[in-house]
Amino acid sequence: MSVISAHDLSVIKRDRLLFERLSFDLCKGNLLYVKGPNGAGKTSLLRVLTGLVEPESGQVRFAQKHIKSCREEYNQQLVYFGHKLGINHSLSAVENLSYWCQQHHVKVCRQQIFTTLETLNLVGLEDIPAGNLSAGQQRRVALARFWLNNHARLWILDEPFTALDTQGIALLTEKLQDFLAAQGAVIMTSHQKLDFACTQELYLEYRL
Amino acid sequence: MAALLALLRRDLALAYRQRAELMQPVLFFMLVISLFPLGVGPGPETLKMIGPGVIWVAAILSSLLGLERLFRDDFTDGSLEQLILSAVSLPAAALIKVLAHWLTSILPLIVISPLLALFLHLSEAMYWALLATLLLGTPLLSLIGAIAVALTIGLNRGGVLLALLLLPIFIPLLIFATSAVEAASMNLPFGAQLAFIGAMFLFSLALAPFAIAYALRVSQN
To answer: ipTM for the complex?
Structure first.
């Protein structure tokens, strides 16, 4: 069954046509790997798919419904990991995550957040302001959302492997495989070679 | 509902961590007002005449100082994206953020206003009228200000633009508020002025959250 589908999407950014009449259909348990050079519009495509940005024409459907008409339901099923991490530098890792969970109606106890941070190798860093963590550690904190939100059916990740060490990449790869095996759908961009087979690929060309 | 309460708690906790930044508008407010008796002379009659206007102008200017804090950090670190993509309805979330901003940046100004009324020789009747206009009128500053901040958040250095956009809109508020205090100084009823300010407040309370939410979505483009 299709989780998310795009129909004739065209996106224009700063008077430049990034892509036009783009369509795809992503089913449960599949991963869509978006490739292309810098500036080809990968991030813009992902932001259109989340509903943050309106496409010039075309539409995005979640479970056959236009995402505008079921925004609340869509938001509850979606976890988005973008270029901006959404981690406040004055709040600690635990606070950041617990406020995020409450906003997304994810019921977790403090203990679960601590165990998740332990899985992500952040022991001892739970209570210091997130601004004092290194870039890679901040990304790990943001990635903890994928461990905490277990009712989402769609993950959208923009360059998730940037600034992560090999152990972090292995952890995330394993998590992605588990999620796909559990009938989740994933859309991601990356410049790294993926260690596992992706079911669908989409290549965006750089247009002038 | 729980999600909105969590958002309020988050914003209040953040304001507490950044209290040095929060002190700036309060200090500015006090400094501006305490300069007036030095500048125009300490004569009680002069001060009484300009007092209400001075306090209101200072309140508007100092509220502009702290206004950008409302969405700036959330926009730059991406928390705003996550909020838009969360299960909370965006207009309600916007209203909560405005409430948190009013509680942390404007309420302190109102709390120290008795002291400043003393500086400016306001009579008791004038002070109560001033307090009523401040309580009804300052939420309007936060609500309308939030729309402008949401619109200009994507621009670099939107600060001056923000002042240019907002100051003309606040003129009616300033006129009604100072005229209420002036009426009180002559022991005249000032219910009509308060009613006007109240009407403007309720109107913006009903519509501003939707305008803020729309502006926040547009700024993501």
So the answer is: 0.92
